[in-house]
């Protein structure tokens, strides 16, 4: 079954494929790998491609998309492409600038979804990670409601079909939803979500507001030293996932992905290995029993791989709240 038949309707009427291909890679991975992997993903049936300005690979990802359009594999309207506003562009006058930079790199006329990548703003400038002489991030204070108003203008300008957020907690979502003069509400909230951090309460809240939850790090994490605590347990080594993988004759990764789909979560699968990229499409070929879904729910340990502790002191740091 092709993923493009499996979509969820967003609150603005557009449709998002429930399985997406994540393109983030650690710095040591050559950028050309993003082109190769994205081509393989599209050939395998992925129609939802997730990237971001911060990943600094949009030229390569755009090249892959355009080449698959050129060879007739897909049309532009078949692809659902997500990019994200980086934290150094939160000031309202920079929001469209960031999107236009992405479009120029992609060589596309529009994106399907534009997200505020993270609620905490950093000082604008050439550097994506501005630090002072002590190595600490240089924070900026921007009311993300004013950032959101600039996001709405990007939608009105036709540069993006839909707008949403990423890494926002319930309180921050409510701040936007209750904003005077709100024109468009966020269609989704993309957050870290996997059996060790199942985001049950945030998922319930988002469903109650017709906001789609999108899961990143759904297979645990790439364990990149600068972002992830290396002592944290490896999700895919969990014995429960292992025994379920045997039961369903699938991989632990497929069990973790299927778990999200059955909860009504849009899930991103990230791999640069051809076999795994193709394998991840098998998520549509089986179903977990309600009993097994309950067992997976029971794995929750509130383990957050991407803790963003470098910006803990920012007033908009999102992970201090329960959810």
Describe what this molecule looks like in 3D.
The chain is an alpha/beta fold and 323 residues long. The protein contains 10 helices and 10 strands. It has helices at residues 32-44, 58-70, 92-106, 144-156, 170-177, 200-208, 239-248, 252-262, 274-280, 290-297, and strands at residues 7-9, 15-17, 19-22, 48-50, 80-85, 111-116, 160-166, 188-192, 212-216, 266-269. It has an 8-stranded parallel β-barrel, surrounded by 4 helices. Strands 1-2 form a two-stranded antiparallel ribbon. It starts with 6 loop residues before the first strand and ends in a 26-residue tail after the last helix. The relative contact order is 0.14.
Q: Flag low-confidence runs.
A: none
The ordered string of helix (H) and strand (E) elements is EEEHEHEHEHEHEHEHHEHH
Share in helix = 25-40%
Radius of gyration computed on alpha carbons: 19 Å
Extended strand count: 10
Helical/strand content category: alpha/beta
CATH class: Alpha Beta
The N- and C-terminal alpha carbons lie at a distance of 35 Å
Largest sheet: 8 strands, parallel, barrel
Strand content: 5-15%
The total of helices stands at 10
**Please, how many domains?**
1
CATH architectural category: Alpha-Beta Barrel
The CATH homologous superfamily is called: NADP-dependent oxidoreductase domain
How would you describe the shape?
Answer: globular
Strand order of the largest sheet: 3-4-5-6-7-8-9-10
Protein name: Aldo-keto reductase type L6
Organism: Meriones unguiculatus
Keywords: NADP, Oxidoreductase
Site (Lowers pKa of active site Tyr): 84
